[in-house]
Amino acid sequence: MVVAIPKTVGIGTAPVTIDPARSSGAYRWYVVGVLSLGYAFSAIDARVLAVLVTPIKASLHLSDFEISLLQGFAFALLYAMAALPIGRMVDGSKRRTPLMVIGVIMWSVLTMMCGLANSFGALFLARVGVGVGEATLSPSAYSLISDYFEKQRRALAISVYAIGYPIGNGLALIIGGVLLERLSRSGPRDLWILGTLAPWQLVFVAVGLPGVLIALLMATIREPERRETAGIGLAGVVPIREAIAYVVRRRRLYFMLIGVTALSGVLAIGVSLWYPTFLIRTYGMTPGAVGRYCGTLMLMCGTIGTIAGGWLSGVLIRRGRTDGNLRVMLYSTVLKTVPLVIGPLMPTATLALGCMAVGTLIGQASQGVIFTAIQDVTPNRLRGQVTALTLLVVNVIGLGLGSSIIAAITDFGFGDEGALRYAISITGAVLLPVVVLMLALGMRRYREELATLAVS
Hints:
Elements: E1 17-18, H1 25-47, H2 53-60, H3 64-92, H4 97-114, H5 120-130, H6 132-148, H7 151-162, H8 164-186, E2 189-190, E3 196-197, H9 199-208, H10 211-218, E4 223-224, H11 240-249, H12 251-283, H13 287-318, H14 324-342, H15 349-363, H16 365-376, H17 380-414, H18 420-454
Parallel strand pairs: 1-4
Antiparallel strand pairs: 2-3
């Protein structure tokens, strides 16, 4: 099939853009597949620490709260410094692909650097650097996909991208658990110039290595023509202050959208980080077993749930429900409340894992649609910065507080490591009703903004 390729205005080596309306469906889905694969490896590198908590605590003599800082706050710190400048580069750049390639290389190298850390401070700094992955990848990915796909198919496309997270999260537990078990049998190893590394350090090195291949795949993505600009940014890059001013003028809408994303992130991230440790402490499961069971459930249920959410949103929108994305978010939040709250209180590991499976299957339906909802009410030349702002808040609140709130309730509230199960349950019981209320109250304003942009 011959694809018409209009060149952007310019001379010499000006980049080539692809008109999404004329590009082949196969190529568009190839782009989504590559981005999803990159997202999966980002999640693997970021989340593998969840299955390494026990040996890291023993090796570096850390508390639960210090572990929570490594899992959450370290990532949030990077976002606080870099998210908005990176988002501005996404909105203003003629080519978004190089930003993602650089990000992949950086997070992969710094993941391997985690394996060389021998103190809390060194590991914390390396984890800060690993956070550059999502800071460069997701704003670029959401922007690119929104240009490649029209609104009726956008939720499904973004959901396919979003399945990279549960797949990567699941693989992080499976691969991390298997590697830790096998490497622990032979003990520390001498890796020449890298020195002698403990099994948990070798796991970090191993999961960071594939980053070079992912970066090469990212480099094959071609730039699509920008669409749905609403007349914003046509004369050049929109300054950060104007992007923030745009959000502030619509603060009730964006407060709801970003707020529900962040609060959902508090629970989703906190539970995913601490559920493996809860299973080990409460039921005596081994890290390897936890990695296999949790990882498999997250991979299968998370993937099915995310795709189902995107598909259902598309069905609702085609039937005239313009707020289909938020409706799916609302339905999934209501339905997942019971299994997420009672799961940690179950008397057996089998029942706890069953509740986790149901909660993940239902809850992941909102993973792609909420970011699609944000893209749909945001003009093209602001999407990178608004997405970066959203991810900044999600990571500061979700990562920074999600893991730390659960750890703080355990350490400072109960003063007992065995009370981790109650901390997880309490967090869900408090946050989920708040998210439901915010969505219900914000639905009308969201529909009004969609109607305004449709005629602009």
